[in-house]
Hints:
This protein has two domains: 118 residues, Rossmann fold (3-Layer(aba) Sandwich), CATH 3.40.50; 257 residues, no CATH class. By secondary structure, it is α/β, with parallel strands linked by helices. It has an eight-stranded mixed β-sheet, with helices on both faces. α5 crosses α6, α8 crosses α14 and α12 packs across α13. α5 links the parallel β3 and β4. The chain is built from 17 helices and 13 strands.
Amino acid sequence: MIERTLAPRLEAAAAAFPVVTVTGPRQSGKTTLCRATFPDHAYANLEHPPTREFATADPEGFLGQFDGCVVIDEVQRVPDLLSYVQVRVDERRVPGEFVLTGSQNLALMDAVSQSLAGRTAVLNLLPFSLEELSGTAARPRDVWTAVLRGGYPPIHDHGLASDEWLAAYAATYVERDVRQILNVGDLESFRTFVATLAGRVGQPLNLSALGADAGVSHVTARSWLSVLETSFVAYRVRPIHRNLGKRLTKSAKPYLFDSGLLCHLLGIRTTEQLRLHPLRGAIFECWAISEIVKSRVHGGLPAATHFFRDHRGREVDVVIEDDAVVRVAEIKSGQTFLPEFLTPLRELERLLAQSAAPPERVEKRVVYAGDDGQRRSDVHVVPWHAIGSIDW
């Protein structure tokens, strides 16, 4: 098993709370992590029809079969069970007694907030980061292999062909999970919508235009995008909140959590296709921002990733504000560092210094697809393979 950076936080949470809830996309490794971290816990999977039927029909009997601690998978499948978990933990208060997993964040968190508020720690597990693959046989040999294969654990754990696995994953998601969350009557239209969204990764989001290109209304586009976000397939990066005295873009930018799935949806099957693809820059940006998000989320921090873009088109891809420190980064798919990469970073630093509440420090980075790291006085030039080794 490839070690997950979330594991220490999972252990600490189980020592402090009677319930730990681990959520994330399907096939991100939640079950593997929880069972490996708690090998002495009993185990139940609510995707298994007889187990789900037992838990639904007789929740007290279902929980009563476990004398000690238990890992319960896909708990959103029986949301009423959480009310009985609440009663049990209030009576016993055993640290780590219940470790729950779920793949549909909205359904799961609605149930958790109603029944287990104050009783559970909630952790998010995303697909493998590059840092987690480092030092293993699964570590990608070059940047475009890393981007093309993405991070879903089955691809790396079992050496599977990424395109075949991702095709099956996309089909399973469309045909099963979407119908569980939202009544999508026309699956072909939904597939078109997902592919259209993939082609707009990293661009300011216009739901009316997105819906029109996909052949649906903007209301449907908004609803379907929410479904993708709920299932940890897509997410939005929003513009910086700080008032910098400029007219700033207000539209968020959509990304996919996994660059491998993005490449699959765009019809990219080989690294050579990827190198020459007109959306190569946006795809690399998607990969890099997802790596930053994984580093923060698996380390116990909120994703809290924003971007800067003003009315003149000046843009900085990543802005992270943590107390008095602001981290800003440009992401470039070129494999040669160019000095002009620094210009928007220094312009944003100037604007931040002139703001009403200037930060104590601005840390400037350039993440690029090259192999060599550099220090340029006040800027850290980060090669693709080192993106997970620095503090985000």
